[in-house]
Backbone:
């Protein structure tokens, strides 16, 4: 069966490659959807050709930042995939997963370690009602009719070498389907874990919310610390592709907790969330660590009446490099959007955030707002935030704002005079800085995970923050 | 030896010397008033006593309960029992008054305070300051009116039960009812807990409700005149100019206390 012939839901995407200056400038905006009628095998083959003919990508915003993968040794990384891996000792759920995930009620859980799915668990009453949670690989075998209209519908396969690698080599993956009208309170957890260095993980997620379904998805991206490995042997790659499609009136709260630990993990991922007619998505990635992370995130309101809240938290530390490109895309109106990100950086880390509001021709009566607030915790850390707006309709409102801050010394002194030491005061300020977004997760267990990670990073940056104070 | 002893304190900021030899002694259970024209260095003294990093002590010492705290960290001074009610309290977004107070109280203790005990204490303080209980779930000073901020300062003081508190113009920005509530609160903490206080003010009115035994006048970085409540009345009558002339204080004037510094 051919892929990309939509059975229902959103109309086929118009090719968009090269339409904007930015797309040629640094290959940022989405190209044509890959799901244009080709079979999975054909897409894999096209992706393989793109992989072989392209160089490792570089993202550049001149005068601000360059994200380059020149230090990754791609040839040295194994995929560790295949059936032989699934039976062996690697088939266990890695420790980092049990250490990090909250002990809580869940609708289902899928864990992929490196390139093997090591656990799939789904509430049986949900399975009876038609909910599907399985590896994407199995979904292609068992649910081709559900998968094919959507697989890679809006993701590209050839913008750069790692995107192509993902499309060509992914083997396990995750597939979640929530049938029409099914409302699920507890979250579906999708976990990508890397338990050892020297591997390349290709993560491929497809989530479909059928009309008027309501559910939560929590993705976790985690790695062990690889602390015992010698320098030069601590590399791993996560190349991810994630797509979520919400059909008419569907509602989803999507959150992602990413922390690749202290190993040298590269994460280059593309994510697309499509919001259909009168559908709603609240999306909050919490990007909390990785040696080099490049995330291309797009939240698109594709049909009239769609609404979304696009939130994000990031915290870069030590020598980490984070590059986020977040697009708030309105393809039709009336539609609403609200983008709000908050990030901090300590150590000698670099974080760059580019937020783009894009309103297509015909997306009349769209109202959207983008704000990005950042906080520097060390003199050698750097955060660049660039909001931009591309509007091709007239009856719309789109604006942006934000703040760049350092620690408020007056607030620190104030708290010290109440008996709190400096690290405690800093923690209160930074936690208070993230709190408005953390509280929006509206899920106590998940909020605690994020708060704990933020607190851990602050504790780790303690000396750094101390030195910052005395240097000023 | 007095509980809080300030000896020949010289303080400067990056660009100039602000305090030029201040001597002051305050004991638990004593109420002092500190008055002086704008810019004379009152807030500088208050901030320096709590260890604000912008102020450098070039000479002199601060001793508290027998310990030299001249170079101590601000939080150590607070834990030792000093408190500052700020002239301009800053806002701390993202943390409620109650949570903040719990953290501050716990910072002083070995074991965290029991929920019940904390609630009782908070209830007491809330009644003392005549604020709504809901007030304590608001983010600290975030969007507070001027009067609310000042009440929040004294509420914290009541909860943290210091030995000596410095109140930097806590009375300004308060309407007459709020002023009475706040001042009576201070007086009660003095009567019931033996609080010692240094009340920095420009006005006589707060001193109708809290009775100082000692009044000090600060001009150009020095204490130029000391006495009892009668000084306050004299000040209101005559103004600072008269006193300035009398004591010969000026930007380059001689000192009342007389220790000739350069
Ligand atoms: N951090 C600082 N940096 C530079 N100058 C300062 C600083 N703090 C105070 N000053 C200066 O020191 C002098 C004394 O200021 P201070 O705030 O102590 O006066 P004050 O007596 O409290 O006045 P007011 O009655 O207006 O509150 C002023 O000239 C002020 O501008
Ligand atoms: Mg002052």
Residues:
């Amino acid at each position: 069966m051919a892929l990309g012939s939509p059975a229902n839901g959103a109309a086929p995407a118009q090719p968009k490659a090269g339409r904007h200056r930015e797309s040629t400038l640094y290959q940022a905006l989405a190209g044509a959807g890959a799901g244009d009628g080709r079979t999975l095998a054909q897409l894999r083959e096209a992706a393989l050709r793109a992989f072989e003919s392209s160089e490792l990508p570089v993202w550049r915003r001149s005068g601000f930042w360059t994200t380059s993968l020149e230090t990754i040794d791609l040839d040295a990384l194994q995929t560790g995939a295949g059936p032989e891996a699934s039976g062996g000792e690697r088939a266990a759920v890695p420790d980092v997963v049990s250490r990090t995930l909250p002990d809580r009620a869940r609708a289902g859980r899928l864990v992929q370690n490196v390139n093997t799915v090591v656990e799939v668990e789904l509430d049986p009453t949900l399975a009876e009602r038609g909910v599907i949670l399985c590896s994407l690989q199995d979904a292609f075998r068992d649910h081709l009719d559900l998968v094919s209209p959507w697989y890679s519908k809006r993701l590209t396969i050839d913008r750069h070498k790692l995107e192509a690698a993902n499309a060509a080599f992914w083997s396990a993956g995750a597939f979640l389907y929530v049938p029409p009208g099914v409302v699920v309170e507890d979250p579906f957890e999708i976990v990508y874990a890397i338990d050892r260095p020297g591997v390349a993980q290709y993560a491929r997620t497809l989530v479909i919310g059928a009309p008027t379904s309501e559910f939560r998805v929590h993705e976790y991206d985690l790695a062990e610390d690889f602390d015992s490995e010698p320098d030069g042997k601590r590399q791993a790659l996560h190349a991810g592709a994630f797509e979520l499609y919400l059909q008419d009136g569907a509602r989803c709260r999507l959150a992602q907790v990413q922390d690749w630990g202290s190993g040298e993990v590269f994460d280059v991922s593309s994510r697309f969330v499509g919001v259909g007619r009168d559908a709603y998505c609240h999306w909050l990635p919490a990007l909390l660590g990785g040696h080099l992370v490049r995330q291309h995130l797009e939240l698109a309101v594709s049909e009239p009446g769609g609404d979304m809240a696009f939130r994000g938290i990031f915290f870069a530390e030590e020598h980490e490099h984070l590059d986020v490109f977040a697009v708030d895309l309105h393809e039709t109106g009336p539609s609403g959007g609200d983008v709000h990100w908050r990030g901090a950086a300590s150590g000698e880390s670099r974080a760059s955030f580019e937020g783009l509001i894009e309103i297509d021709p015909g997306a009349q009566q769209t109202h959207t707002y983008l704000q990005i607030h950042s906080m520097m915790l060390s003199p050698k850390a750097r955060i660049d935030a660039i909001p931009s707006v591309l509007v091709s309709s007239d009856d719309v409102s789109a604006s942006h704002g934000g703040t760049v801050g350092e620690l408020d010394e007056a607030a620190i002194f104030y708290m010290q005079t109440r008996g709190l030491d400096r690290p405690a005061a800093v923690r209160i300020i930074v936690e208070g800085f993230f709190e408005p977004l953390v509280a929006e997760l509206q899920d106590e267990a998940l909020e605690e995970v994020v708060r704990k990670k933020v607190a851990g990073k602050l504790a780790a940056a303690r000396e750094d923050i101390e030195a910052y104070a005395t240097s000023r | 030896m007095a509980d809080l002893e300030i000896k020949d304190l010289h303080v400067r900021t990056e660009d100039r010397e602000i305090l030029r030899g201040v001597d002051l002694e305050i004991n638990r259970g004593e109420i002092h008033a500190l008055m002086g024209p704008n810019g004379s260095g009152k807030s500088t003294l208050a901030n320096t006593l709590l260890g604000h990093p912008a102020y450098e002590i070039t000479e002199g010492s601060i001793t508290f309960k027998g310990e030299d705290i001249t170079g101590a960290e601000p939080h150590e001074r607070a834990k030792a029992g000093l408190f500052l009610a700020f002239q301009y309290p800053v806002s701390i977004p993202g943390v409620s008054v109650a949570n903040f107070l719990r953290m501050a109280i716990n910072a002083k203790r070995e074991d965290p305070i029991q929920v019940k005990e904390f609630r009782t204490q908070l209830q007491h303080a809330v009644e003392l300051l005549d604020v709504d209980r809901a007030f304590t779930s608001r983010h600290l000073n975030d969007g507070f009116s001027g009067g609310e901020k000042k009440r929040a300062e004294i509420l914290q003081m009541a909860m943290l039960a210091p030995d000596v508190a410095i109140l930097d113009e806590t009375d300004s920005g308060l309407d007459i009812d709020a002023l009475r509530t706040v001042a009576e609160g201070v007086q009660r903490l003095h009567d019931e807990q033996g609080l010692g206080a240094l009340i920095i003010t420009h006005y006589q009115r707060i001193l109708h409700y809290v009775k100082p035994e000692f009044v000090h006048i600060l001009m150009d970085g020095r204490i130029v005149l000391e006495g009892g409540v009668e000084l306050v009345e004299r000040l209101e009558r005559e103004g600072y100019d008269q006193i300035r002339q009398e004591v010969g204080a000026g930007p380059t004037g001689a000192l009342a206390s007389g220790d000739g510094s350069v």
Observations:
- The interface with chain B takes residues 408-411, 413-422, 424, 428-429, 431-436, 469 of chain A (CB under 8 Å).
- The longest helix of chain A spans residues 422-438.
- The longest strand of chain A covers residues 235-246.
